Amino acid sequence: MMEQRGRDPADTRDPRNQYPPELMRRFELYFKAPSTSKPKVVRDIRAESIGHLVAVRGIVTRATEVKPMMAVATYTCDQCGAETYQPIQSPTFMPLIMCPSQECVTNKSGGRLYLQTRGSKFVKFQELRIQEHSDQVPVGNIPRSMTVYTRGENTRLAQPGDHVAITGIFLPLLRTGFLQAAQGLLSETYLEAHSITLMNKSEDDELGNEELTEEELRSITEEGFYEKLAGSIAPEIYGHEDVKKALLLLLVGGVEQAPKGMKIRGNINICLMGDPGVAKSQLLSYIDRLAARSQYTTGRGSSGVGLTAAVMKDPLTGEMTLEGGALVLADQGICCIDEFDKMADADRTAIHEVMEQQTISIAKAGIMTSLNARCSILAAANPAYGRYNPRKSIEQNIQLPAALLSRFDLLWLIQDKPDADADLRLAQHITYVHQHSRQPPTHFTPIDMKLMRRYIALCKRRQPVVPESLADYITAAYVEMRKEARVSSDTTFTSARTLLSILRLSTALARLRMMDTVEKEDVNEAMRLMEMSKDSLQPDKSSTSRAQRPADIIFSLVRELATEGRGGSGGVVRMAEAEQRCVSRGFTPAQFQEALEEYEELNVWQINQARTRITFV
Known about the structure:
Layout: H1 2-5, H2 21-24, E1 53-63, E2 67-77, E3 83-87, H3 102-107, E4 113-115, E5 121-131, E6 145-151, E7 163-173, H4 178-183, E8 188-198, H5 214-220, H6 225-231, H7 241-252, E9 270-274, H8 280-290, E10 294-298, H9 304-307, E11 309-313, E12 320-324, H10 326-329, E13 334-338, H11 345-356, E14 359-364, E15 367-372, E16 376-381, H12 394-398, H13 402-405, E17 410-414, H14 420-436, H15 449-459, H16 468-487, H17 496-512, H18 520-537, H19 550-564, E18 572-574, H20 575-584, H21 589-601, E19 605-607, E20 613-616
Parallel strand pairs: 6-8, 9-16, 9-17, 10-13, 13-16
Antiparallel strand pairs: 1-5, 1-7, 2-3, 2-4, 2-5, 5-6, 7-8, 11-12, 14-15, 18-20, 19-20
Helix pairs in contact: 6-7, 17-18, 19-21
């Protein structure tokens, strides 16, 4: 305004006082590498790439916050009021002091220039560090990393833990003045980012956000798709059908509830406990590759700080900052922890808060904050004596605190029992995989990883609810479970968390079927999984007594109901009550119907025409 007041509008502006193009430009120009070129690894970018457009892929290890960076400095003169612009190209600049306008030079008034921050132009600036993938590191080396500078709209595109491909110009970092003298002839290098694309973890393609086609959906959701999806998880590993179903539900996750003032987690936590050599670590590493966001750590290789968050000194500013650990980087994903039993107790307590509250609270070095860690935890552990010892109780075998065990929705005990037929099939499977590097032909073709990943992402968008009609059914089943736990002096801990686990597993199953309401079959399947995981923990009774057939156990359950007189009166049992009792014990409705018909033929009981009552003869 001062300048306009003192100047005739007809005059032409001094060339030094004209608006620089950087100030007038309303767009940003970036280059993208041709689609045919493959991204290189950090190690392959050498001196010949300086000044060239290169494409690199790696994992983002840290990202600074976005700060403004000056692009054009604007000054006003205190004598003549003329505005002067100084475009800034380098990382440092020397401010102008004397006014260069014609008026000041002619009058020799020596006007001083003052920087006007409101008139200057700033651009967004963020610094990333990317590190090469662990599978691209040569033998005996440590992963290399590279600094990436992003400006303008390229900022905030990547978070730590993302797999990215960055196209940019590889440049030396030019220092001036004293710093240049200090660094001598050496020069730091950085990558000026032009385009950032998020990548898939294992393959070299971009993160697939495109919708599934009708054909692909049909291929997944055909008959028996739940078994097919579960069988597609690590198809090279023989058996473990129920464990794979549980892992599939872990990938999908339940629905998170947030009533006012509290939060109920939707993530499912699973612990695989088992003898050596039952492919626990292989299952973990497969889930780690399949999940969109995941971290893989081992018990001894990670400290409590490495899992939660460490206070670091920022090399740029010198202030204390928080560096997220494995659980923070796996936010909204899965954290796989192997050798869970070998962890030090002090480090294991860091996981307690994450598993239920889904946050990490920190108060150290003057930083008080709570970080989000909304991740599912998949832990693998060996029993206390290396192998499961059937002569000892479950507590002595597991040796994990009850506070931790109750936070796991499912705890599987995978035992390696000698059995001639199963051993033969397992050995044939392993030798076939070893010969042909693929799983033996099965009655279905496993779904490939990319399609699984996209289908799971689609399932996660659903928010199924539990209808009123099922609420009573679930509560009755839970009360029954508590009662059983009390009667049978059950060593596994049944608490209110068990009820939440059933709800989580049911909503995950409804998500998997792409439905918006939970159905009775979902609850039954969730209860069956809970029951199977409990059964895996029970000591094997078949060694002492002969194995009971499902029909016999169902008969004894119904007879129990009749003697209690709860399901009816004096030898009459309501069908619905009997079926609910049997299903909650892990039997399928089909097995229940078979047992009914078998004992009806033997004339042990009679069923009325409407099939609502069972009367003992």
